[in-house]
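Late entry, written up from scratch paper. The run itself happened at the end of the previous shift, but nothing got recorded in the book at the time, so transcribing now.
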Amino acid sequence: MPETLTSIDYLETNLKNLLDKVKLYKPDANLDLIAKACRFAASAHAGQFRASGEPYMLHPCKVAFILAEDLKLDEYSIAASLLHDVLEDTPVTYEEMLSLFGEEVVNLVDGVTKLTKISDTTAPHQKGLSKEERQAENLRKIFLAMAKDLRVIFIKLADRLHNMRTLSSLPENKQKSISMETIEIFAPMANRLGIWHIKNELEDLAFKYLEPGVYSTLMKEVDTRRAKSNKIFKEATELLNKELIKNDIKATIESRFKHYYGIYQKMNNKEKGLEEIYDFTALRVIVPTVSNCYGVLGIIHSIWVPLPDRIKDYIATPKANGYQSLHTTVFGPSGELMELQIRTWQMHRIDEFGIAAHWQYKEGWKDDRKFQKQITPFIQQLIDWQADLKDAKEFIQSLKMDFLNSQVFVFTPGGDLLDLPANSTPIDFAYRIHTEVGNKCVGAKVNSKIVPLNYKLQNGDIVEIITSNVSSGPSRDWMNICNTSSAKNKIRNWFKKEKREENILRGKEITDREIRKLRRIWRGFSKKDLFERVMKRYPAYNSEEEFLAAIGYGDIPVVQISKILREELDNIIGKIEEKKSDPTELSEKQERIDLSYDGENFIQVKDIKNLVIRVARCCNPLPGEDIIGYITQGRGVSVHRRICHNFKFFSRYKERLIEVNWSLKKQKNVYPVQLLINGWDRPGMLNDLTSLLKDELINSRSISAYTERMGEAVVKIVIDVKDIQQLNNLIKKIKNINGITQVKRIVQEKKS
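Output as recorded:
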């Protein structure tokens, strides 16, 4: 970009073009305000450049053009877009801007300024935070800013759109990172606000950088198909126009092309090839009145045969973001499937501009009562929802699942429309209405029929929640039934407040159970020590009771406790191993049952003689199993199964690993193995087991048996076998004994 960009002539030319655009859709706009903002911003950004080498002022100008051309926003929004980086990137103060441009403009600028780029990891307030924490912090700011003035998010979307248009100047890793944020956060945000063309362009631009090969191939194929479709659409347009003129309906017919990422998603989601996607192009019919819309639908169906299940009435039932249209799919000329959309000019304007349409020719949405009724609950829902979720990771995941995911549209008995994430249940619906409605829910009706609480809500369902003042509150099972994070959080909060003592006991049972599982594998570690190690991972909880209660009501998932326990055990073992420089010592000392045997006579080390060879007690390999040798310090070669859990510690000392093999000489030796056998207790089971061992000529060194609650029999037996093949054959035969449910070989390995 030439230096002349910063010249007065260049700036004034761009400013004139911008003012002309604004004047076209808002003749009474305060153009002086826009001009003043443009010149002030140019002065403030003088000497600053973008990563592409272009003068920085180009960016605010382009953002302003997007708002004027694509969204047709008021002069205050345009002025704020020109100034949106001044507070953040120049020495100009808030007070100085306030005195020059007034409260409305400066509040918009301040709102955008506070929305620090999500990808900015260098900002002082962002240092030390995880990616999820940075994202959560900035997205909370977005929602709060939206609550004050939705125009802030329009400026932010225009800012992101221009950044995406100029992304090629950044390194590849930045391109992919920013593109991922765009497709996960900003494009869905534009979608929820009904700004379709910005949403589509953001998705296509992100798609281009995330999947460049796929994007390029798809673009060529789609463009080829579109060229072939032009003839069909021209023929269909001419025929439809004739019929509309006959019926005295004034209409504008235009083509609508599905964007590349939309086609890509449809191909992936429905596992279809491009040739199976028939609605990547469509005809759009725009008419003066609603009655015209239904009249046109009838005319279309008189010309072409419709697909009955593809007729959708979004006029009678608008989408939550305000979208209205009639959709139909017909067998068009030459039998080709063709989609048509029918709408009024007012509907078309809202489709083009979304929520932003309500600023056009108005002083703001607060003067539009119908729009205010629609959008205020939407914003309040955002604020309430994000305030409930404190954990950054949960917040980001919930945002993508609850707010930005595909939606299902349902009605209250009073006819109010609610949008919920797909796969929502009556429980999600109840908590969306009010927390107390959810807590007192005892049943639900959908379309006047009783349904189970795990029923998946469908578009158009009329949902009635049955409540009772004597309800004992939500069930813990609801956590597995509901789909929204909001409902899950409210259920957790109820248990947190109402069932503290019960939660503490439940938390203790859970931790005891998880510790018990691990201690069966790793003997010798104190239950108290393990519990304290887990609790240290959660410094936010000030007492043991508070920590246990959090586990009990589900704030800390059980899988997390199990994961941390395993990590802590690995850490303990790792430290012991490092201290000893021999990863086999720990497990050998822990084994209480003597399963040891000397491997020197029947295990060979390739090309090396006179080495002391011993079999590791942690896994007790048998002839025929895949083995590896580990050279210990002063104790010869320790032989392990390759699947031994200690193998991960050996990887630290790769130079001490050595290949070993079972001797080919016939051995008369037998080797001890411990088995754990589970089954349902019955008379004669133990006798059947001992008889089998006798028949197989297998010696049993020891055998113990007992019966647990619910009638489960547990047998532990130590036997002598020749090799792994004999052991596997025996296990297979034991499993065939009536009542036996499980047979396990016991070694000092972690359970998966």
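The chain has six domains: 3-209, 214-359, 406-474, 500-580, 585-662, 671-745.
(Scratch paper discarded after transcription.)
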